[in-house]
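Hi R.,

Here's the input for the PPS complex you asked about:
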Amino acid sequence: AALSESSSEQAPDERRVLPQAIVIGVRKCGTRALLEFLGMHPQIKIAPDEVHFFDKDDRYERGLEWYRQQMPMSSPGQLTMEKSPAYFISPTAPGRIQSMNHTVKLLVILRNPITRVISDYTQTFTKKRSRNESCVPIEDLVIDSFSGEVNLRYKPIDISIYHQHWARWMMKFPRHQIHIVDGDRMIVDPLSELIQVERFLGVKPFLTTDNFMFNATRHFYCMRKPGRATEHCLGFSKGRTHPQLKPTVHQKLKDFFRLHNNLFYQLSGREFHWDAT
Ligand SMILES: Nc1ncnc2c1ncn2[C@@H]1O[C@H](COP(=O)(O)OS(=O)(=O)O)[C@@H](OP(=O)(O)O)[C@H]1O
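And here is the predicted structure with PPS in place:
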């Protein structure tokens, strides 16, 4: 850190500060896209890696000074941000973040909970297949073969029960301090979501349609960063092809999540149409 702090590229007033805004999750909902898109804003500096400071005990024990060192250089007037999707489901993260800074701004990006389960499965499947390990079909994981009901012991299902995790954050932070980003919408219309985020963060309106280019090969928006001629897409681990669920299993998941989704809408005051699809 000492070396980079004295690098010649550095503006004289630059230093590392604790984040004033954190993307707390949710895993597989577009957290990387959200952070990278925000990183195009001149008033926002983003940590390159997931820090996992508040959810991993061994990291938390390293202390806030270690955490600060993981942050990028920034100038006064710029916001520092990091994203660690596991914070959302961590029992300890809300209290730990609150004791760092009770005024920190929190962002949570959510997508249809069934799509999120499939995305989570696809990630594990892809990793296992690359190691030549055997893979179980998704239907065998999301449904308990004994009871025929949705398998609550399958972690991707538990993560998608948003209200149970959300409730922990509500015990530590006022509602207005957490902004919810629609991850399904961010895939098809990133700018509309980011304009709302800029407003929430209190940075000047900067991002425009010029910053986003739809890439027909990737089927996702890529970034046109200020001052760069070429577009920049997220890595190939983002935007994987999902398996198609058997209709009976899909219906079972829909029936299961309907109640949980409604509880989330009530608790958060934000309604999505996840049950329509
Ligand atoms: N612009 C753009 N480019 C590529 N991918 C995009 C984009 N916007 C959102 N997404 C969706 O982000 C999903 C991955 O979510 P995360 O970044 O939160 O995953 S992770 O938890 O950090 O592993 C990833 O999920 P999969 O499609 O299952 O790979 C994407 O659907």
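One thing worth noting: The chain has twelve helices and nine strands.

Cheers,
M.
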